[in-house]
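Service request form, structural biology core

Requester: graduate student, group of Dr. S.
Request type: structure prediction, single chain
Budget code: on file
Notes: please return the result as structure tokens.

Sequence provided:
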Amino acid sequence: MIDYETFCRLRHLHDEQGLKASQIATSLDLDPKTVEKWIAEPDYRPPQPSRRPSALDGF
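Core staff response, request fulfilled:
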């Protein structure tokens, strides 16, 4: 998961400078698949913590 600042830099490199996902991944030190995923997202979504079941949920 990336933070908002990284998302903004990623979008700027893609939208304004026209860089490809592999070029952005190299410059930001991210995996190309991560960059492709975030390029496809229209807006930044902060990570949602997953709810893990408690050992006491059954009681």
